[in-house]
Design goal:
By secondary structure, the protein is mainly beta. It has a four-stranded antiparallel sheet with strand order 1-24-23-22, with no helix packed on it. The two termini are about 20 Å apart.
Amino acid sequence: MKHLWIASLLLLSAPAFAQQPQEIPYDANVTWLKLPADLHLGEPSGVAVNSKGHFFVFNRGNSIGPAYGATASQILEFGPDGKYVREIGHNLYAWSFAHDVRVDKDDNIWAVDKGSDMIIKFNPEGRVLMVFGRKKEASDEGGPWTRVNPPRPAVDGQFRQPTDVTWDTQGNIFISDGYINSRVAKFDKNGHWVKSWGTPGNKQGEFNTPHGIAADAKGNIYVADRGNRRIQVFDPDGQFLREIKINVPIPPDAMPWMGNKPTPEQAANGTMAAGAPWTVCITPGPGTQYLYTSDAFPGRIYKLTLDGKLLGYLGSSGRMPKEFGWIHELACPAENTLYAAEILNWRVNKLTLHPEKQVAPQTSAALK
C-alpha cells in the first residue's frame, strides 16, 4: 500500500516536472539593415514586416526639441535585403514619441505614438488613412498625461500613452491603452468606437501597463500585461479566456543591461521581473501558430504554444549580437525567423532560430 501511495504521488506531480524547456540555438545579425551614410537609428521601438518582405522600423530618431520633451518618431522602410527605401510620414503632426508599429493583412502600416496619444493608419503608399486619438493642443499645457491616484477616468475614443494595435478576423481594431488607462479599446473596421474593457489593477481582466497586443487566427486577443507579469487572453468581445505566465529560473550570473542586479523581490514582481512580457508576437497562419514574447531581465525571448506551453527560450541581457537590450517589439513572420527592436542597443536584431539543434527536453524519466 505504501508503494502504491508513493507511485500515485509521483504520477500526480509528474506534470510539474514533465518538461524542462531548453535554450534554443540561434544566429544573430545586427548589421543587416543598410542605412544611408547620414541616417542613424535612435531607439528603434518597433519593427514590422509586410507581405512583400519590406520592413518598417518605428524609430526614436530625428529628435527635435529640448533634451526633455523632444519629438522623437519616424518610420523607416527597408527592402527585403535590408536596404533603406524611404521615410514615411516625415513631419507628421502625430509624431512625438514612437512606441510600436504594425502591418495589417492589407499591408497598411499602423503607428502607435505614446507621446501624442495617437494611432495613425497609413496605406501601403505611405498616406494617412485613419487617425485615432488626439494630442494636446500647443495652446494647452504641454506634456503627456501624468499618473494620479486615483486614476482619471478613461474617455471613449481618447488614449493616454497607448502602446500597440491588432485586428481580429472581422477587421475590428484593438488598441492597448496603455500606461495610464490600462485598458483595451475596440473599434470596428470602419473606425467607429465599439467598447473598451479593463481598468488598472491586478485581478483577472485588469491591467498594469498593457504593453503589447496581438491576435491569433481565431481572432482571440493576447495582451502583454507587463506590470502584472502575465499575458491575458480574451475573445474578440473581451471575455477572459486564460492567463499565461512564464517561470524559468534566472541564471545565477545574470545581470541587467544597466544598473545593479535586482533584488529577489524586484526580480519576481513588476516590469523588470523575469517573464514580465514587454512584447507579444504570434506567427502567421495557416497551420500551427506560435507565440513569442520577451522580458527586460534577464533579457530572454520565449517561444510558446498559444495555450501557454513553454517550448524554449533564448538570449540574455547585454550588448553583444546574441544579447539583448530591452526588446521593445518583436516581428515574427515565420516560426524560426524573428526581428527584435532593441531600444537600449539602438538596433534591430535579425534572429534565425535552429530548433533542430535544441537539446531534447528532460522528462521525469530522465530525471530519475
